[in-house]
């Protein structure tokens, strides 16, 4: 099982799509180091194996190396979700020495200008590239994360080629979900036709490269890959609430980073109890979904994006996935926020 923890809302960039609405001027109410270690211990006890330290920019948290090392001592696999701009050679060494297994670094274009504009920081593309190279120099695995929108739709294959050239172990294209500041650019998200086309393009490209190429926030990739006879290590598309959840800087537990529903808070109740007993998680695990998702033959291996369902249904995380290629067949369909 996988869990992501937004350890801070502070960030040195101001990305257009940020689901946590992070930025340089943001005040962040965060767990103390002691509270954080207690949380990590409870997460490990609940059976989670992969701990994603994210943000904001997690490297702005002073105790991040200590927390990574502690997660490692609990026999979890600690990974980092970062914009990469702060990873100097010294930082890369400290991350490696702390036990970090992989650094996931955001790269949204092969063109510096387009990436910088999307990420809200001039020179950020070059700094991210340097961050990747610094990780490689110390033997720390890297993964490239790309937010897919209409603006970089035609670049997917080129970004994957760049990831290969940079020595990354994986490239994970994230399909835009309108949450946080992402709601302001909702019209740039892929509709059903392009959504499906992009999944096929990613799967096509995955057959040409040695690194892992995985669509994220596009759970239909699993049934599509199955129909195409492609072997993958993923058995289900959306695992929110089933084998995955998210923790915010202040300890609030959410279904996933893109679904703003507070389930509970780890300062008020042990995480193990929240994960095992909470009503919301039980509802998601029942897979008693509505609309086309509830009737779909691929429900058990897809699940539909619960965050996208929540946004477009105006608050129902059990609703159908609106951009599924099975649900609609119109590029002109526009959902109102």
From TrEMBL:
Q: Which organism is it from?
A: Orenia metallireducens
Highest taxon in the source lineage: Bacteria
The keyword Nucleus belongs to this UniProt entry's keyword annotation: no
Q: What PANTHER family does this protein map onto?
A: PQQA PEPTIDE CYCLASE, RADICAL SAM DOMAIN PROTEIN
| InterPro entries from the UniProt entry | 4Fe4S-binding_SPASM_dom, AdoMet-like_SPASM_containing, Aldolase_TIM, Elp3/MiaA/NifB-like_rSAM, PqqE-like, Radical_SAM_PqqE_MftC-like, rSAM, rSAM_NirJ2
| GO molecular function per UniProt | 4 iron, 4 sulfur cluster binding; catalytic activity; metal ion binding
**What is this protein's record name?**
Putative heme d1 biosynthesis radical SAM protein NirJ2
Cofactor(s) recorded for this entry are: [4Fe-4S] cluster
Q: Which SUPFAM superfamilies match?
A: Radical SAM enzymes
Q: Indicate the transmembrane segments per the record.
A: none
> Pfam families, alphabetically?
Radical_SAM, SPASM
Residue ranges constituting the Radical SAM core domain according to the UniProt record = 1-208
**Keywords in alphabetical order:** 4Fe-4S, Iron, Iron-sulfur, Metal-binding, S-adenosyl-L-methionine
């Amino acid at each position: 099982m996988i869990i992501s923890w937004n350890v801070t809302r502070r960030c040195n960039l101001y990305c257009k799509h940020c689901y946590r609405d992070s930025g340089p001027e943001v005040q962040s109410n965060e767990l103390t180091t002691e509270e954080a270690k207690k949380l990590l211990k409870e997460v490990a006890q609940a059976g989670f194996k992969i701990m994603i330290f994210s943000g904001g920019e997690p490297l702005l948290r002073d105790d991040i190396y200590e927390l990574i090392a502690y997660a490692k001592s609990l026999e979890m696999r600690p990974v980092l979700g970062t914009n990469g701009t702060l990873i100097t050679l010294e930082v890369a060494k400290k991350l490696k020495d702390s036990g970090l297994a992989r650094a996931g670094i955001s790269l949204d274009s092969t063109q510096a200008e387009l990436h910088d504009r999307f990420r809200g920081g001039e020179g950020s593309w070059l700094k991210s590239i340097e961050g990747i190279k610094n990780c490689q120099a110390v033997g720390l695995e890297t993964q490239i994360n790309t937010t897919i929108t209409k603006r970089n739709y035609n670049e997917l294959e080129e970004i994957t080629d760049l990831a290969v050239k940079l020595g990354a172990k994986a490239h994970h294209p994230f399909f835009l979900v309108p949450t946080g500041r992402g709601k302001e650019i909702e019209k740039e998200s892929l509709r059903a036709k392009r959504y499906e086309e992009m999944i096929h393009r990613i799967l096509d490209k995955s057959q040409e490269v040695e690194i892992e190429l995985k669509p994220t926030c596009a759970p239909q990739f699993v049934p599509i890959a199955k129909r195409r006879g492609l072997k993958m290590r993923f058995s289900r598309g959306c695992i929110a609430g089933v084998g995955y959840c998210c923790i915010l800087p202040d300890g609030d537990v959410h279904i996933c980073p893109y679904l703003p529903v507070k389930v509970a808070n780890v300062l008020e109740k042990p995480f193990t109890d929240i994960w095992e007993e909470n009503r919301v998680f039980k509802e998601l695990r029942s897979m008693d979904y509505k609309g086309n998702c509830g009737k779909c033959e691929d429900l058990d291996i897809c699940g539909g994006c619960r965050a996208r369902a929540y946004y477009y249904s105006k608050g129902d995380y059990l609703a159908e996935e609106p951009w599924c290629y099975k649900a609609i067949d119109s590029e002109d369909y526009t959902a109102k926020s």
